[in-house]
Amino acid sequence: MAINYVKVQGVGSVHQFPLETDDGPLRLSVLQSQYPTARGLIYTEADAKVVVPAQKEVIKPPRGGWGTRIYSALLPEVVPSPSKDDTRLDIQSQLVKLLSKPQTQLVMAPERKISPFDGKVGEVREFITNPSCIPALLHTK
Known about the structure:
The chain has helices spanning 28-32, 84-100, 124-129; strands at residues 5-9, 14-18, 26-27, 40-45, 48-53, 58-59, 70-74, 105-108, 137-140. The protein has 141 residues and is α+β, with helices and mostly antiparallel strands. A hairpin with a 2-residue loop joins strand 4 (40-45) and strand 5 (48-53). The longest helix is centred in the middle third of the chain and has 17 residues, at 84-100. The termini are far apart.
């Protein structure tokens, strides 16, 4: 018995798509008239999904022919864009990581005092690296 169409399950109904010739290939453009993003067909056999991809704008029949099985359109997977909540959680997790790192602190030894800085903006480095100030500063992590 020659098959001259392929059955494809849609939402709530089955569509019949005509083949180029009896038991021949199905034009991808014919399938895409109903499913614009279709890349081929898929069916279930023995608890496994079998993909029948389009090749050069046609979908060739699977081994054993089209048969009377009902196919589904092979559509690209839709990857959901992150929602505002997902983005907020990602920012919060990054903030928690940043805040959980130990912070470097400058601690002045209680027995020493640093004289007030009376210089100009360009003299800050010289003031801090002055040997008389270095013993008064302790660097800790």
